[in-house]
Structure formats: C-alpha cells, structure tokens
Design a protein that fits this description.
This protein has 312 residues and is mostly helical. The chain folds into 2 domains: 2-73, no CATH class; 87-305, MetI-like (MetI-like fold, Orthogonal Bundle), CATH 1.10.3720. It has 15 helices and no strands. The chain has helices at 2-30, 34-39, 45-55, 61-73, 87-116, 120-125, 127-139, 142-156, 172-206, 209-216, 221-233, 235-248, 253-258, 264-273, 277-305. It is globular.
Length: 312
C-alpha cells in the first residue's frame, strides 16, 4: 500500500504540471492578450502595452508559466487583477463554504443511496420511489431544482431564507437554514448517479456464490446485505465519490450562484466575468490537484472496505 501511495504521488507531480501548463497557455495564448481582454476593445495600444509590462505579459509564455508555477508551488498564486487581493487569501476565504457544502452533499447522497438500496425492506417497498427520485436528480438541472426549492420553502411556505450564507458563529440554526437547500440541490444529482450504480452492482453481487453460501448458512437478510454484499457492491460508488469530491473542489458553480453562496464556484464565475486570470488559474490548479488526491484516497478506501483488494 505504501509503495502504491508513493508511486501515485510521484506520478501526480508531472500530471499537475502538464495540466496546469495547458490551462496557463490556454488563458495566455489561445484566448488572446490578457491585457486586451481586461481593458476591453476600446483600450488604446499604449494602455495595453503598459498593462503588459506591469504584469509581465510581454515576456515569452514559457517564462510567464515558469514564474507562475514556481510561485504556485510555494502557495503564491499572485494577486487578483480586479481586487488586488492575494489570490491564495481569496480562495482560502471561499474554500470552507464550498468544502462544507460539498461534504454534506456527498455524505447525504452516498448514505441515502446505500441505505435505500441495501435494507431489504427498502429495496422492495421503496424501489419505485427511489427510481423516480433517481430520474429527477439526474434529469433536472441544478439551477431549476434550486429555484424550485426556493419557491417551495422560501416563497410559498416561508420556512427558509432564499439565499445567502451564515457562518457557524451566527448560530447553528441560522447556519443550517442557509445551507440546507444548497445541499439538497447539490446532492440530488449525485444521489441519482450513486443509487443507479450501487443498485446495479448490488444486484450483480447478490447473484454470486458467496452470497448464496451465506444465505445457505442461515444468516439473516440484514446480515447478508450489510456484511457480505455491501462491501463488494460499494466499490464503484467509492470511485464516483472520489472523482466527485475532486471535481467539486473548484466549487459547485451553478448551486453557489443560485443561492448566492460565497464559495469558490461563485469566485470562479466572477473571475471569468472580470478576466481575472490569476484567480482562474489558481482554481483550475485546485480542481486538478483535488481530483488526483481524491482518486488516491478512493484507492485507499478500497482496501479498508474490502481487505481482499491489495495494490502492492
């Protein structure tokens, strides 16, 4: 296991460098002059040249990338073009919001998908309802579901505030009121995906010989389901969870925008609108790193859930 972890971490370094280089050159070369995009079409040549010299855009792209990646390795992503704030500081202020919302959403989606498709009574009695929720979660866009929840719980019933964020310091009740609808919105799609994947894998595992042997020994359906079938059927879900958390590291853009959440997703939208390239690149690097690390954690989780799996 230790050898696998070290090998994966060493392979992650060139992967991160290659992908961030692609992001950097896409922003600075393919999309045109950053200074020109920042100043707009009506900017004069002198103004663009001055901004290029100020931020070093007039240097060769490879030199710009070398300077940027050297600073990024040390945690210095430069300063925002629009606010002049440290990019690292701006992202650090937003990450707790996105991370909490992401973890609650994934936990809710995974727990519900596994429980509803593992408990023997729920598999039979709630199969139709679970399938309906799966289809709604997968087919209904996040923004539409979020707006529907706002209309239902805020406008019609008046139970929850429609938008905004409240830190824990404002009180547990106020914090939960602000986060419950974004979490439900974000978890709906992943519940549908996890539920479908887990249900299909569970049905396949249930037909295997060791499950038949467990039943022949007289074990209860609950024991067979949770002790024997679940550890084998949940492995594909672990893969999806690892990929999902890594992707959401950059922020649930649509959900945070709909509910006005001050997370990295909303920051990313603002950076795109303002052509704030340092912020865009930093969040891109964050997403890449998150995906790689979460995939590694998913592989480690394999051996915890099912000790028969070994990578060394």
């Amino acid at each position: 296991m230790l050898t696998m972890i070290v090998r994966r971490l060493l392979l992650a370094i060139p992967t991160i460098i290659a992908i961030t280089a692609l992001l950097f050159f896409s922003v600075t070369t393919i999309l045109g002059s950053p200074a020109g995009m920042m100043l707009g079409q009506d900017a004069s040549t002198d103004a663009i040249a001055a901004l290029n010299a100020r931020y070093g855009f007039d240097r060769p792209a490879i030199m710009q990338y070398g300077a940027w990646i050297a600073g990024a390795i040390q945690g210095d992503f430069g300063r925002s073009f629009t606010t002049q704030q440290s990019v690292a500081r701006a992202i650090a202020d937003c990450i707790p919001v996105t991370l909490e919302m992401t973890l609650w959403s994934i936990l809710l989606a995974t727990t519900a998908a596994v429980i509803l498709n593992t408990i023997p009574v729920a598999r039979r009695a709630l199969a139709g309802a679970t399938t309906a929720v799966n289809l709604i979660g997968i087919t209904v866009p996040n923004f539409m579901l979020g707006i529907s929840l706002i209309f239902l719980f805020s406008v019609w019933l008046g139970w929850l505030p429609s938008t905004g964020w409240a830190p824990w310091s404002d009180g547990v009740a106020e914090h939960l009121k602000r986060i419950i609808m974004p979490v439900l919105t974000l978890s709906a799609y992943y519940f549908g995906v996890f539920s479908i994947v887990y249900r299909a894998e569970y049905r396949d595992v249930a037909q295997r010989m060791f499950i038949q042997v467990a039943r022949a020994k007289g074990l209860s359906e609950w024991m067979v389901a949770f002790k024997h079938a679940l550890p084998n059927a949940i492995l594909p879900v672990i893969t999806f969870v690892g990929i999902t958390i890594g992707q959401l590291t950059g922020g649930a853009v649509v959900t945070e925008t709909v509910f006005s959440m001050p997370g990295t997703g909303r920051l990313f939208v603002s950076a795109i609108a303002g052509h704030d390239f340092p912020v865009m690149l930093a969040i891109g690097m964050l997403i890449v790193t998150g995906v790689i690390l979460m995939n590694l954690l998913a592989d480690i989780a394999y051996t915890i859930v099912n000790p028969q799996i070994r990578f060394d």
